[in-house]
Design goal:
By secondary structure, this protein is of the alpha+beta class. It folds into three domains: about 140 residues, Rossmann fold, CATH 3.40.50.2300; about 210 residues, PPM-type phosphatase domain (Phosphatase 2c, domain 1, 4-Layer Sandwich); about 130 residues, Histidine kinase-like ATPase, C-terminal domain (Heat Shock Protein 90, 2-Layer Sandwich). The chain has a five-stranded parallel beta sheet with strand order 4-3-5-6-7, sandwiched between helices. β1 and β2 form a beta hairpin. α9 runs parallel beside α11, α11 packs antiparallel against α12 and α12 packs across α13. The chain is elongated. The N and C termini lie far apart (about 85 Å).
Length: about 525
């Protein structure tokens, strides 16, 4: 504590004074500026011309100064030449120009070369103080940003190394796409070989896009790698990471900046895949993955739950799957959901487009992405891959018939986004069929009851240029064979929607007494 002039006691804050380099060929003015700027609380170094200033900056290093105050017109070299010289070595150091002779063209040139302010002699003391304070602040911000960028690059190198040794790109039964917002991101997917011959795949999404997220991501890589080598399972790894986040990372002492640091959390999905097509999964916070069977039927695995790092005993969803020949598990991070929302398409359609499109096209699609993007599709090991990928997986309450126009628009956007080359006539036929089948399911199968749900699924087989539409309702169905009978009784009056459903697809069949309708649309 120390006493001020008016008798108040305040804390003395000890930190090095910011340093200012002043250049002016008028020695009397230079001495006066040295004295005045010193009263502002800065350490001051002076130079009588540009050559002397360049020697000082070279000898002491530009990093020792937080701002430069220079005259413009001086013998031999001008302040503009000093600006250009300094920009070659340190673009972060702020320069304030103090001149009495500069023309409008000179001022414009100095601003273009990076001067943060141009003052006119004689300068008022409050104006000078404000200009120097602004310059010092700007230098600190630039240097902090540069250090952060360098730190991100270093963490990014660690993450790249970890991804290489994890070998995810070498697994023939895994498709994945990952693009961090920055050079070091919080999202990653990795694979680890187990001693029993199975593979453990990990999809993780660390909250945030700062260095905290990048460091935790790199730490998570190392922890999982070490614990897998120790033959520990997903639950033990999740418990260890949860304890680390709660007891060490989120509880660390950050001093005065503690209120500015958000708590860290990690969403993680662990999938163990053996050589017989059996999958075991554990999920904390990753959006529910989708399992698609060889018969083009998809369902979500569980519901949303909490990530690691927030609660002592986070609820972990887990389950087992007999993937079998042709089955696959699709998972993604919440950044993929944001990407889909931006494009107003289903997340399944967005995932397929990102996995299937060329790199240059991906970059164009991701120009406006505001989060890390991560998508992974895991096929059954040791068996042929399936051909079906989900594009639309939706349910609608029985009273949703009044929204069918907007629903149809959403289908059109998703299918066109996922399969840009779908022929217009085939898309039109599918949309019209889907619209009529959904209305039939809502009005009759659900009886317009909002508590009952009709299901719509669209799958795509790229190798066969084939879209399959399946619409199902919980009703008892009906015994009319009109949709599938090769020679139906045409004497009966039927709703025009049924006629469209029968005639527009390339193939139609039903199940559950016509309560589930299957249709296919193909092109050459």
């Amino acid at each position: 504590m120390y006493l001020t002039a008016d008798g108040r006691q305040i804390d003395r804050i000890k930190r090095p004074a910011d340093s200012i380099l002043i250049i002016d060929d008028e020695l009397a003015l230079l001495e006066m500026l040295q004295m005045v700027v010193g009263t502002f609380g800065y350490e001051v170094t002076v130079a009588a011309d540009v050559d002397q200033a360049e020697r000082i900056l070279t000898r002491q290093g530009t990093h020792t100064f937080q701002c430069v105050l220079t005259d413009y017109k001086m013998p031999n070299k001008t302040g503009l030449e000093l600006l250009r010289w300094l920009r070659m070595f340190d673009g972060d150091l702020s320069i304030v120009v103090n001149t009495g002779y500069a023309s409008h063209e000179d001022v414009s040139a100095m601003i273009r070369e990076g001067a943060v302010d141009v003052l006119k002699k004689p300068v008022q003391m409050n104006v000078l103080a404000q200009a120097l304070a602004h310059g010092v602040k700007l230098t600190r911000q630039r240097r902090h940003r540069a250090r952060a960028v360098q730190a991100v690059k270093q963490v990014g190198l660690v993450q790249d190394y970890m991804l290489r040794i994890m070998g995810i790109s070498e697994l023939p039964f895994v498709d994945f796409f990952s693009r961090p917002m920055h050079q070091a991101g919080g999202d990653f997917v990795s694979a680890y070989a187990r001693t029993d011959g199975s593979q453990m795949l990990v999809l993780a999404d660390v909250a945030g896009h700062n260095l905290d997220a990048a460091y935790i991501s790199a730490y998570f890589h190392g922890v999982v790698h070490g614990m897998v080598r120790g033959n520990l399972g997903p639950r033990a790894i999740m418990d260890d990471l949860n304890s680390f986040l709660l007891e060490k990372w989120n509880d660390r002492d950050l001093g005065d900046s503690s209120n500015m640091a958000p708590e860290a959390s990690v969403c993680a999905l662990f999938v163990e895949a053996d050589s017989q097509g059996h999958l075991t999964w554990h999920n904390n916070g990753i959006p529910p993955p989708v399992f698609t069977s060889a018969g083009a039927e998809s369902h979500r695995m569980g519901e949303g739950n909490t990530p690691l790092g927030l609660y002592d005993d986070p609820e972990t969803l887990q389950g087992e799957l007999e993937c079998g020949e042709g089955g696959a598990l699709l998972a993604w991070s919440d950044g993929t959901e944001s990407f889909a929302l931006h494009h107003r398409v289903s997340v399944e359609a967005a995932a397929f487009r990102l996995l299937s499109t060329a790199q240059d096209e991906r970059e164009r699609l991701l120009e406006d992405a505001d989060d890390d993007i991560l998508v992974v599709r895991i096929h059954a090991r040791g068996v042929p891959r399936g051909m079906w990928v989900p594009l639309i997986l939706e349910t609608y309450p029985g009273n949703a018939a009044g929204k069918v126009d907007s629903i149809e628009d959403s289908w059109a956007r998703s299918i066109s986004f996922a399969v840009p080359d779908v022929p217009e006539d085939k898309l039109y036929a599918l949309l019209l069929t889907a619209r009529e089948a959904l209305l039939n399911a809502l009005n009759h199968g659900c009886g317009r009851n909002p508590d009952l749900l009709a299901s719509v699924q669209v799958h795509y087989a790229a190798q066969r240029r084939l879209l399959r539409l399946v619409i199902s309702d919980p009703g008892p169905g009906h015994g009319d064979s009109f949709l599938t009978d090769p020679e139906p009784d045409l004497s009966q009056d039927r709703h025009s929607g049924l006629v469209l459903i029968r005639n527009f697809p390339d193939r139609v069949w039903t199940a559950r007494n016509n309560a589930t309708i299957y249709t296919e649309f193909t092109w050459g």
